[in-house]
Amino acid sequence: MHKDLALIYSRCFDTYSYGIFHPMKVERYRLTYDLMQACGLTQHTKAEMVEAVPATREELLKFHRSDYLDILEHYSRDDNSCANFKYGLGDIENPVFGGLYEWISLMCGGTVTAVSEVVQHGRRAAFSMAGGWHHSFPARASGFCYLNDVVVALQPLLEQGKRIVYVDLDAHHGDGVQEAFYTTDQVLTISIHECGKDFYPYSGFVRESGEGRGYGYSVNIPLVPHSDDLILEQALQRIVLPLIKAYKPDLLITQMGADFMRTDPLTRLEGTTAFMEYAARCFMATGLPWVAVGGGGYDSINVARAWTMLWAAMLEVEVPYVLPPGFQTILRGLGVDQTLLHDPPHLANPDDFARAQKALDENVAFLERRIFPLYHIRPGGMA
Prior knowledge:
alpha/beta; Arginase, Chain A; single chain
């Protein structure tokens, strides 16, 4: 029996570690799967779990340089390796360790698998939680990212002439993906993120709109610190959804980083699980073939809760307000006192909200003047 959705997973997603003091904690993948399982979402009649398959070197070479892949393989075989800053490898941000190449190829392959499940096998949607490494460049690691899974996975579709919308909800701007597609009209990249004025990767300003044939196909909605769910939802409704509708893509792919949440230790936005669920329901409602991938998120419990709610929204089912008792037991074993699956409603401080609303309105006005006419969209989001 053909099932409409695919959950891409591997028990090996949390096999390796960036190091005990690194903010990227790979146990978030296991916790996410455990929570999905506790909520009864891994054996759903609508969905099938599909094992992630490592990306091949041939697939990786569609985007990444051979010398870069060679050095990654070298580091993967040598536990006593040193830094190579030419490739962005070996520092605190992007550590190297034995087995690195095999592990990141698997994570990248999860996204390749997800795209294949939707495009080749006719799934309605797929979710690969281990994807979303949007800072990687052809020959340089950056921002905890070694291989750019989305760019790699989309190459065969671009060769076939497909049109794609990529939406990035991570608090950090998806600079690697934007740069890869900055001069093409085949991929419309849209990113909602914390403003890069004083925030990594210091890019994603509203005037970054693409070049040449790509002009108008890179869209950025930078948000000021303390933007909350109301601001995030407006950005989605006022800019993202009208552009998706007007562009009419063959595939929608979204990066669902969970670091826009208010208790994330590395960011200053004030979103909650409610925005993750809202965005997922909006993407499902487009009716487009959809691939969702993971991304940032540096509080592992936030990530597990947000991505479980994402998967529930993809399945179009409700999940309880509180965490299942069995999962609460797992958390207590980790020294975590958390009982809620859904975040309680949260609004930013009124002064912070006023600043966030003013900044959003200014950016929306700019995009309505510069970008919307290219898509024959009238201000207010009407095509």
